[in-house]
Amino acid sequence: MTLIPGDGIGPEVIAAAARVMEAAGGRFRWDVQKAGKAAFDECGTPIPDALIRSIRRNRVGFKGPLETQVGRVGYRSVNVALRKTFDLYANVRPIRTLPGVRSPFSGVDLIVVRENTEDVYSGIEHQIAPGVVESVKVITARASRRIARYAFELAGRERRRRVTSIHKANIMKLSDGLFLACARQVAKRHARIKYDELIVDNACMQLVLRPQEFDVLLLENLYGDIVSDLCAGLVGGLGLVPGANIGNRVAIFEAVHGTAPDIAGKGVANPLAAIFSGVMLLRHVGQPAAADRLERAALRLLAERRTRTRDLGGTATTAQVTERLEALLSR
Ligand code: ATP
């Protein structure tokens, strides 16, 4: 399995997660690879060939966040490049209320399904004239149909009742219109699952008023990026929310959060988002017993309210959370 510690808090949370995944009975041969800033500093490229070969060989990756320079023309986002290289078209982020975590809501249990390969992430941007810049949003029927299919099949597998497409087709009539048309086509083949649509601004308001009413959310890439962080806030923040990037051949698991430069290197990052991503990974690779064990231990740790990092109102370090989890796992 390819293990990418990543940048910022990545190495801290990925090391913690790898330890407890093993303590829960997960069996892996880790193949550690550098990417992002760490790779750029060492080999002059953020995506070394060895990394690509490793992922291609192992077909599963576990990854920390990678640094992308904001607004500067440095290297392109490595996250975006990996998603494109391996055609990881579905980004899946389960968001649910967790025991012992202070948050404005209870009973939230939804899944964000984000299209991961196109939209404004095409990277096509140019200056038309001084002071005028154009960014191109690309939406295709092929990618829209397959992400809709993924969302409905996931909803079926997980016994979900409803899929909601979130869009701005009132303004982007062609691009978001195409996305919706594809989702409607797919919805017709899944009569048992309710399908509806919400304009993205309204969806944001509904989500912060009545998040319990949502089930599976189907979104294009940019709306999915923003709405995921909003949804993380509904259940206690970025320190808790896991994610998976799924393609037909390869899957890469990673927390929703970024490199958190403000706390990197201090040993205080919450490792639980990475750990819950590890739970998803264990299920994906056919190790459900280890996944269940790790998930139960993590939920028990939260419910105890004893060992919590600062983002959850506690004072524990990353190492203390990891050690407490290991103790719970060894019972
Ligand atoms: P990037 O550009 O890599 O996305 P960012 O700072 O824009 O980085 P995040 O890294 O997601 O975005 O961090 C947003 C906020 O959430 C920061 O204040 C950060 O400290 C906090 N945060 C993110 N992940 C964690 C975590 N695992 N534990 C504690 N706090 C976190």
Walkthrough of the structure:
The chain is α/β, with parallel strands linked by helices and 331 residues long. The chain has 2 domains: 187 residues, Isopropylmalate Dehydrogenase; 131 residues, Isopropylmalate Dehydrogenase. 41% of the residues lie in helices and 16% in strands. The chain has a 10-stranded mixed β-sheet with strand order 2-1-3-12-11-4-5-10-8-9, with helices on both faces. Strands 6-7 form a two-stranded antiparallel ribbon. The protein is globular and about 55 Å long. The mean pLDDT is 95. Bound molecules: adenosine-5'-triphosphate.
Give helix and strand order, one letter per element, not per position: EHEHHEHEEEEHEHEHEHEEHHH
Which spans of ≥5 residues are poorly predicted at pLDDT below 50? none
Structurally, the number of domains stands at: 2
Biggest sheet layout: 10 strands, mixed
Helical residue percent? 40-55%
Tally of contiguous helical segments: 11
Indicate the CATH topology of the largest domain: Isopropylmalate Dehydrogenase
Q: β content, as a range?
A: 15-25%
The CATH architecture category of the largest domain equals 3-Layer(aba) Sandwich
Q: State the shape.
A: globular
**Which strands sit side by side, in order, in the main sheet?**
2-1-3-12-11-4-5-10-8-9
Strand elements, count: 12
Rg estimate, integer Å: 20 Å
What small molecules accompany the polymer chains?
adenosine-5'-triphosphate
Class by helix and strand content? alpha/beta
CATH class designation of the largest domain: Alpha Beta
